[in-house]
Amino acid sequence: MRARYARAAMILPTQRHLFDLPDDVTWINCAYMSPQLHAVSEVGKESVIRKSRPWLLKPEDFFTDSEALRKLFARLVDADADGVALVPSASYGLAVAAANVPVRVGQRLLVLAEEFPSNVYPWRELAERAGGQVVTVRRPEDGDWTHAVLAELDERTALVAVPNCHWTDGGLVDLVRVGQRAREVGAALAVDATQSLGALPLSVAEVKPDFLAAAGYKWLMGPYSQSFLYVAPRFREGRPIEHNWLMRGGSEDFARLVDYRDDFQPGARRFDVGERSNFVLVPMAMAALRQLLAWGVADVQETLRALTERVAKGARALTLEVPPESQRVGHMVGLKRRGGYGPDVAAKLAARKVFVSVRGDSIRVSPHLYNSEADIDRLLEELDALV
């Protein structure tokens, strides 16, 4: 089958030339990991050389780049820099949340069915420790995750832990509505934005989450092990899960570090991971966020929506099930097949150098700006041969 769909109006032109991506590879798998921007790789190489020469590193270098990265992330989510902590993973950020969200005996902690494990395990541990109960919101038959969450979110709830979209198929959760309801019933809102942030606009000023964590190596296009945490003002004097010297007041004065202090650096910096000044990863993450901000997340979303709509049309022609556009994000789409797929469908596609993921019972297709309509058509041709 050759797709015969009209060309969509692309907001942003293909940016493949900016990525380290061979011509014969069809990578439609950003939800797994983004290919690296050439600019990010170059900064990484320069940073490795710099780190190998410690005489070039000054005390202020432990603070300058990390503060610049903090500000870049704050711009991305419409936040203040004091609300941003630098962490190594989304799970680290969610562990900070679990250490600070109050839960009383019998209260409920809401998570989605088939949620990513890192947004389930910390809440199980918190519920066990506090005498609460993890409640799983069932997958809605009509695909409306927002309605399903709101139906369970009541005065019994201490916490609702949700993503902006489901990681298996891109099913949308309206965080603004969920956040508003959470505040009405006195529940905390923790968001794992790993599978949306950078591809879908999000403003913490509108959503008002208590905690928002995001891994940096997917839609944020940064290096592995450099991630981010936003903390709302009411939790910024909370309890960190580790104690490192950088988070303490006066840590800029290396000569006085033995004058131990009980006060912390301002805002969410108390939640920074130890060695947050990573002299290789931080500059790489900065380069990635600068490129992302230059494109504009709203334009990224609309460009990718044109591609996933092409996927959806072609998949329906193959009698695959696709969530309606109104119930999913524009940068990711899950393709289900009645009776399921064989266990090696992703491997068979990979053998043809077409790369997607299988998550749950869906083939998850997640393009980015390095993809084109030709990539989508190639995927559909290979799927036609398989299904």
TrEMBL record:
Residues of the Aminotransferase class V domain: 65-379
Record GO terms (molecular function): transaminase activity
Keyword Transferase: yes
Family matches, as Pfam families: Aminotran_5 (PF00266)
The keyword NADP is annotated on this UniProt entry: no
Keywords from the named record: Aminotransferase, Pyridoxal phosphate, Transferase
InterPro entries in the record: Aminotrans_V_dom, PyrdxlP-dep_Trfase, PyrdxlP-dep_Trfase_major, PyrdxlP-dep_Trfase_small
Protein name according to UniProt: Aminotransferase class V-fold PLP-dependent enzyme
